[in-house]
Amino acid sequence: MTQEIYKHDAYVFEFEAKVISVDSENIVLDSTAFYPGGGGQVCDTGTISGHAVKEVFRKGKDIIHAVPKHNLSEGNMVWCSVDWERRYDLMKGHTAEHLLFGSLQRAVPELGIVKISISPESKYVIVDRDIDWNDVKDAVSFANKVISDNLTIRKIVMKRDDPDLENVRMDIDKIKTEEITVVEIGNVDSAACSGIHVMETEELGGILVDRKVSAGKDGTAIHFRIGNDAVDTSMELANTCLRTCEVLGTKPEDLVNASNNMKEQLETMRKGMKDLILTSVSSLRGIDMNGTSVYSATYPNADSRIFTEACEKFRKNGSVVILITSGTSLNVFLSSGSEKVDCGRILGDTVKRFNGRGGGRKEYAQGGCPDPMDSERLLKELENAVRSVLTG
After folding, report:
1. Which of 82, 115, 134 is the last residue of a domain?
2. 189 in Cβ contact with 102 (< 8 Å)
3. 374, 330 in Cβ contact below 8 A?
4. Of 91, 163, 265, 344, which one has the greatest count of Cβ atoms within 10 A?
């Protein structure tokens, strides 16, 4: 059984230990300050007697240190060093996640937590629903006030039957032990957690939520930054906001309304463009190819979703239609109501000659080509390929 130094003092990052077992690259020490990860936080890295520790994980009562290409043996005394800057960043990130989610839940009491991810590359919490940006702003303001108040963070151990556990944020069904470790941030947040944390909120330096994105069926991922990273990102976002205001000719406080107005105008323009293109496609004059009408056209900068409806209409009429829309690249559609025309084969073979890709079913195929300048030449080759099977 490995003595877990980090449980008692997360600030210890250098220590001496004894190797008690070696299995290939996997080393077990009699004691360790390397955190094996947990609660959404990734494991520590560092060195053991100068050899890089690439991974740390728990196996039963032991903590395994994966140390490739080491020369250590059972019984060796070793000097170990945790990568402190990385560890401290993860500690702060984990504490910041507790504080941030607790603050979000104050703003949205029904909010539930789904998943936590704390790593050097990114820090986020997935919650079970989307949150209005105004609620996010209120939560971040509250969290940063807690940071500036420099509240003490402490760990306590509570019995499973302790009535005070009802005030602790936790999922009791996921905890199997009789004793539960609880992390308290002053009197503002209390959550079950066996991870490693800082001692005072001031150490976090500050919290910034810089984006929230859909996490699919799980809900919404709230990404955050801390300390100097939060300050630097705030400055970048503020600069982006100001440059956008300059482009749009509006004030920062009016930017959201200006953006919403532009969005509505764009949707109106898109609908108008769709109606115009559908009318244009419907009025195409077909070319008779051995009794089958073939329609073809190119359209610049059109929403490719418009053409699905048109393709279905021509196919049901027994006709063939070739439609291409050009923007930064080409999107190509081929639909046929004739048994002679295999759309998937014809389109796939043709777009290959233009460094494109595509395919589909016999009655309908879709593809793309990288060069928008090829639109007319591609249209002609598709027309010739259709003509060849209809008149051959």
Report:
1. 82
2. yes
3. yes
4. 91
